[in-house]
Amino acid sequence: MSQAASTATAAAGQSLVEVRDLRTWFELRQWGFMRLGSVKAVDGVSFALQRGESVAFVGESGCGKSSLARTLLGLHQPTEGDVVFEGQSMARLGRRAMRDYRARVGYVQQDPFGALPPFLDVRRILAEPLKVHGIGRSERERRIRAVLEEVRLSPADDYLRKFPHMLSGGQQQRVVIARALILEPSLLIADEPVSMLDASVRVEILNLLRGIQQRRELTLAFITHDLSTVRHFADRIFVMYAGRIVETAAVQELLDHPQHPYTQALLAALADPDPDNALDLREVPGGEAPSLLNPPPGCRFHPRCPKHMPGVCDIEDPPDFEPRPGHLSACLLHR
Amino acid sequence: MAVPLLSVENLRLNYHTRQGLVQAVAGVDFEIRHREALVVLGESGCGKSSLAKALMRTLPRNAGEPQGRVLLEGEDIMALDEERFRREVRWLRMALVMQASMNALNPVVKVGEQVAEPLRVLRGWSGGRARERAAEVFDLVGVSTDFLNRYPFELSGGMRQRVVLAMALVTDPQLIILDEPTSALDVLTQASIMNVLKRIKREQGTSFILITHDVATSSELADRVALMYAGQIVETSSAAEFFREPAHPYAQMLMDSVPRLRQDTRPTHIPGQPPSLLDPPSGCRFADRCPSRFDRCERDPGAFRKGDRRRVRCWLHAGGSQLS
Ligand SMILES: Nc1ncnc2c1ncn2[C@@H]1O[C@H](COP(=O)(O)OP(=O)(O)OP(=O)(O)O)[C@@H](O)[C@H]1O
Ligand SMILES: Nc1ncnc2c1ncn2[C@@H]1O[C@H](COP(=O)(O)OP(=O)(O)OP(=O)(O)O)[C@@H](O)[C@H]1O
Ligand code: SF4
Ligand code: SF4
Ligand SMILES: [Mg+2]
Ligand SMILES: [Mg+2]
Questions:
Q1: Cα(A85)–Cα(A72) distance, rounded to whole angstroms?
Q2: What is the interface pTM, i.e. ipTM, of the complex?
Q3: Do A278 and B239 touch (CB under 8 A)?
Q4: Which of B43, B203, B296, B307 is most buried per CB count within 10 Å?
Q5: Is ligand 2 within 6 A of the CB of residue B232?
C-alpha cells in the first residue's frame, strides 16, 4: 500500500511507526542448496500507526500477518523497504540500539501454549526481561507485582510461584501479556492472542488488552483472522491478502462500506448466530489463496474475484485508491 | 410417532487417571430424527469429543466401558458386541470425522485410496468400484477428481478437511458425527465447507451431529442445539429457540459472549471456570458462575421439559415437568 498511505501519514506527522514499501521474502531451497524461488510473505506494504490507536491486521492463513509482525519486531530482516520507529530508521540501528528498540515493542506471539518456558515460574518468567535490561531487584519485584495486577492475576502472591502447567489457558495468556508489557513498551504487537482460547475467555482477554491499551495509551497492533471480534477491539482495520494490504479504514466505516471485493467476500462469508443461516447457502468465492512463491500477475485476488475484469485485473497491479474519504482500497474498479 | 434415528439415554463415560475418575460424559440424553442436524455446543473440556467417541466406541485405553442406552432406529447398539458393531454400524450406518483428523491422514497413501478403503474393507468392493465411488464423493465435497492420486501433503488444509469428509460419506451412512470440522480453517474455507454440509443434508438426507465451540458457525447447519456443560447437557432446543431465546443461564451468558459483526452490543465474558470433572459438585454444575443461583441450586436440578422437545437443566424452569 503506497503513496496514498504515506502522504496521509506525512500530513499527520506524529506517527509512532511508519512502514514504507516493506518486503520480507524467504528464500526457498530444496535439499538445502537448490534455489526454488522466494516466498514473498510481505510484498510491498506501507502504513503508519498513530500513538495510542488500536489497529487490527486481518487476513487468511498464510497471507503474511506473522511475517509482517516479526519484521516489525526486528526478528526478520526486511528484503526491501524500511520501518521507521519514533523517527528512527530500523535499517540503521546497531546491536545495542536494536536491543533498546525491542524493549519498546512488546510481542504476544501466536501459539500461547508454546510461548512460556515450562521450567520457570511466573516470577522468573517476568523477571527475565527486566534483568536483561539491568533493572535492580526491588524495582523488578515492584514491576512484577504491578503488571500481574494489571492483567488481573491477583493477588500476585497466588501466581508468582506457579509454573505454566498449573495455569489455565486464559491465565497463561495473561502471563504472556504481562511479560510483553513489563518493559513498558509504546507498541504492543499481539499475534492471534486469543485464537487458541475458548470463546468466553477470548472476550475476557480482548477486553483486558483493550483496557490496558487505552489506559497506557499504547499503540496496539493485533493480528487475527477473525473479523467478528475486530469491531469491538480496534479503531482501524488493515485487510491483508497474499502479502499485501488490500483495504484500510476505520472499523465502522470498513464494516459498513467494504470496498474491496475480497473484504466483501470475507464479510459475506461470516455468520452471526442466527437460525435462518441454515436456510440458505452462503456466497463464497471459489479457489484458494494463491502461492506466495508465484503470486498471480496483476491483482492477486483476480483468479477468485467475482468482479474480475479480464484483460485488466490480470495485467495491472492495482495501486491504492481512496473511494471514500480516509478509506483506501487496492482495486481497479475504483479507477 | 416415528422412531427417531438415534436416541441416547443416560450415556456415561469415565476415564481412569492417576488423580481419579474423570466423569467426562455424565448422564446425557438426546435424540435425533431422520434428516436432522443436531449441534453440540460447549466450551473446551466439557466432554463433546468424549460423547462422540462413546457413541462410536472409539475410545482411548484408559476409558471405562460406556454406560447407558444408544438406540439406532430402535435397535440398542450398545448391546452389540464389538465385532458386530464394527461390521454393521461403525462407518456403515454412523461415521465419525474426528477432531483434527485432517492431520491424521496416512501420509504415504494416496487420498483416493484412503477414501475408497472403507468400501473395500467393510463392503468387500473391488478396487475399481470403490475408486469410482470415491470419485463420486470427491465431487460431492468439492474436490477435483484430479486429486484422487495425490498425497495428503500436496493438499491444503481445506482440501484435506474435505477429503476426510469424503471418507465419512463414502459408505453413505445415515448419521455423520463431525467433531470441530472447521475450527482450524479460514473464514472462506469454513463457509464453503458449511455449504457442502448443507448440500449433503438436503440432497442425501443425511443426519448430522456437529460438535463445535463456534456458536456462529454452528447456526449454519443446526436444526437443533444441545449445549453441554461439565459433562452434562444443560439445554436442548430447536435452533430458533436456542439462538433467539436461550433458556438456561449458561446458554444466555454464552450467547452474550459471542462477538457479533452486525450488532453494536459488546460481548461480555462468563466469569469463573467450569468445575473439575474429577470431583464435580453434587448440585447444579453451573452454580458457581450463575448470577441467578438460589438455595435450591445446591441440589441437582435434573432436566425439565419445556414444550414438546425442549429440555432445560435448571431450577428456574421447574414449572415444566420433571424428567429424571
Ligand atoms: N521463516 C520462514 N521461512 C520460509 N517461509 C516462511 C517463513 N515464515 C513464514 N513463511 C511463509 O510465508 C508465508 C506467510 O506466512 P505467515 O506466517 O506470515 O502467515 P500468517 O498470515 O501469519 O498465517 P497464519 O494465519 O496461518 O498464522 C507462508 O507461505 C509461510 O509458509
Ligand atoms: N484419555 C483421557 N484421559 C483422561 N481424561 C481425559 C481423556 N480424554 C479427555 N479427558 C478429559 O475429559 C474431559 C472431556 O474431554 P473432551 O475431549 O471430551 O472435551 P471437549 O469438549 O471435546 O473439549 P475440546 O473442545 O477442547 O475438544 C476433559 O476434562 C479432558 O481433560
Ligand atoms: S482489481 Fe479486479 S480482480 Fe482485483 S479485486 Fe478489483 S475487480 Fe477484483
Ligand atoms: S439451577 Fe440454579 S445455579 Fe443452576 S443454572 Fe439454574 S439458577 Fe443457575
Ligand atoms: Mg500467523
Ligand atoms: Mg473435543
A1: 9
A2: 0.89
A3: yes
A4: B43
A5: no
pLDDT tens digits for range B94-143: 999 998 888 889 999 999 999 999 999 999 999 999 999 999 999 999 89
d(CA B39, CA B44): 15
Q: How many helices (H) and strands (E) does chain A have?
A: 10, 12
* CATH number, domain containing residue A225: 3.40.50.300
Separation CA B239–CA B260 (nearest Å):
18
Q: How far is CA A176 from CA A147, A148, A200, A216, B221, in A?
A: 11, 11, 18, 17, 36
Give the residue numbers spanning the domain of A14: 3-241
Q: Which of B48, B143, B188, B270 to mutate to test the interface with A (most CBs of A within 10 A)?
A: B188
How far is Cα A18 from Cα A10, in angstroms, rounded to an integer?
10
Q: Hey, are the CB atoms on B194 and A267 less than 8 Å from each other?
A: no
What three-state secondary structure class fits A78? coil
**From chain A, which residues contact B within 8 Å (Cβ)?**
60-61, 168-169, 198-204, 207, 225-229, 231-232, 255, 265-267, 269-275, 277-278, 281-282, 284-286, 288-289
DSSP assignment string, B67-128: EEEEEETTEEGGGS-HHHIIIIIBTTTEEEE-TTGGG-S-TTS-HHHHHHHHHHHHS---HH
Asked if residue A300 has its Cβ within 6 Å of ligand 3, the reply is no
- Residue A323 in domain: no
A228, A231, A277: residue with CB nearest B220: A277
Give the number of other Cβ atoms within 10 Å of residue B318's Cβ: 13
**What ligand is nearest to the CA atom of residue A240?**
1
pLDDT higher than 50, residue A6: no
Q: Is residue B306 part of a domain?
A: no
Q: H-type helices in chain A, by residue range?
A: 3-12, 65-72, 95-104, 122-132, 137-150, 169-181, 199-216, 227-233, 251-256, 261-269
Contact B233/B285 with Cβ under 8 angstroms?
Answer: no
Ligand with an atom nearest the CA of residue A239:
1
B187: nearest CB among A200, A270, A277: A270
CA–chain centroid gap for B112, Å, is: 26
Query: Among B11, B19, B49, which is best to mutate for testing ligand 2, by the most ligand atoms less than 8 A from CB?
Result: B49
The ligand 2 atom at the shortest distance from the C-alpha of residue B49 is 22
Per residue in A279-305, pLDDT tens? 999 999 988 889 899 999 999 999 999
**Residue B194: domain span:** 6-93+173-243
Of all helices (H) and strands (E), which one includes residue B239?
helix B239-244
Residues A56 and A189: their CA atoms lie apart, in Å, by 10
Side-chain-facing half-sphere of A329: CA atoms under 13 Å: 21
Whether A266 sits inside 8 A of B157 (CB atoms) is: no
Burial class (CB in 10 A: 0-12, 13-18, 19+), B67: middle
How many independent structural domains does chain A possess? 1
H helix runs in B142-208, sequence order: 157-169, 187-204
Q: What is the pLDDT of residue A10?
A: 43
Q: Is the CB of B225 under 6 A from ligand 2?
A: no
How many Cα atoms within 13 Å fall on the side-chain side of residue B63? 17
Measured between CA atoms, the residue of chain B closest to residue A168 is B273
Residue B229, domain member (yes or no): yes
The answer as to whether A307 is a domain residue is no
